[in-house]
Amino acid sequence: MSSGKKDGWGSSLGVILAVTGSAVGLGNFLRFPGLAAKYGGGAFLIPYFLALLFLGLPIAWSEWAMGRYGGQRGFNSCPGIFRSIWKSRLAPYFGVLGLIVPVVIYMYYLFIESWCLGYAWKYLTGGMNLGSEKSAYTNHFTTYVGLTADGAFFHQGMALPVICLLVCIILNFFFIYRGLSGGIEKVCLWGMPLLVVCAILVLIRVLTLGTPDPAHPDRNVLAGLAYMWDIRGGMPGLIQSLSNAEMWMAAAGQIFFSLSVGFGVVINYASYLKKRDDIALGSTTAVAGNEFCEVTLGGLTTIPAAFIFLGAAGAVGGTFGLGFQSLPLVFDRMPAGQLFGFLWFFLLFIAAITSSLSMLQPAIAFFEEGLGLDRRGSVSLLGFVTLMGTAIVIWFTKDLAALDAMDFWVGSFCIFVLATIQTLLYGWVLGLKRGREELERGGLLPIPRIFDFVIRYISPLFLITVFVLWLHQSWASNWQAIQTSHSVRIALLFVVAVTILFLLLIARAVRTWNARERKNS
Length: 521
Fold this sequence. Notes:
There is one protein chain. By secondary structure, this protein is an all-alpha fold. The protein has one domain: Hydantoin permease. The chain is built from 22 helices and no strands. α6 packs across α19, α10 crosses α15 and α18 packs antiparallel against α22. It is globular, with a radius of gyration of 23 Å.
């Protein structure tokens, strides 16, 4: 068992907002609307909500249950929690994914977070008045991020992009050093309501735009909402959309990544709950909060706004294209666009920092309970590792090669693997009886009995099917990138090195735990 003073949450609301803050990010406001627009509008919601019911919600419940189960036995990290559930020598080593996934994602997510802060500052100070041509905003983003060549980000000197990155690094480690209740919880208690207020203000502005350009009467609020949510082509269009396997895969992936299941974060957060604390209602509330931000705030804002000003052609694009190139052009044409541009990128920054903070806590928990380090030592060690990774990401910025490689192999591949392990661990090792006992202890919401069947059979099958389809579609291009890009190879070699480091540290932690248990027996 771990030693030292145990950290914890200050309130039930605090942990719910912290889990929600971990889940709510750029994907809610940019990726989800883009996928819905791409895959037939309202038709996309059918596989999306089926994935929520059969994948997202069951895995969320199981992570909360396993997290508190391990926490009651003195463990807060994935290696320790897995070891407490599965009495196998291999168990803690499978838990390495619960450390690698959040730590590596943090390395590149921090970079994106700094873009949001920089854009918010530029809108606040009037620095985003770039005219009415999309090329101006595309060129600005290219220069800001350094897409033209490796090392181009640093050619700007101590300019705004570098300053914003340094500010984000300082803020993250300042708050994470203050612990759960003094750092993460306080940020989320203030940040999440502020995020929702900013999002609602932007949403109200979008819904009251009417028909801003008389030359395009077809580009109005109702048409924008219809483009986002209507089932295109009626019943034949719906049948055609539902027969598209790629859409089902995209919907499941969005639910999966949006709820932060398989990140190693939720299981860590839940481990700090007390024995009689509710987890059934808390986990469900956190999922509902994420869905509100994604479906309501994100779905009613991003694509309709782009459609109103740019038409159907402007309402498409990837996360970065839509968020940092198309939407700034929308704010340029929107009445009071500078104000609402600031609110938009400020809410994205809040969403990003509440997520990035959550990514640091699992590794810190492991350093504290497995290596016996105090908070200062844990934060210092983690800061050294993550800054090296972030340096690789911000140096190899040409076409964002290093970022994309880390995102695929860790932010997608490893998340699928970890979530599958956790689902099997809950359904087949912890067992449905012990798992339900954990969920129902102190529970304020009854969990349907059908959940036991779903988490044991349906969720693993759903996960593996989506994983295989997704891997079949994406493997070739990403494997080719390893063979042809030295930036990708360097980034992935660093990920492998960090993984080996964590495996060695887990081996040391296991020896410590074994010795402590022999002494106490």
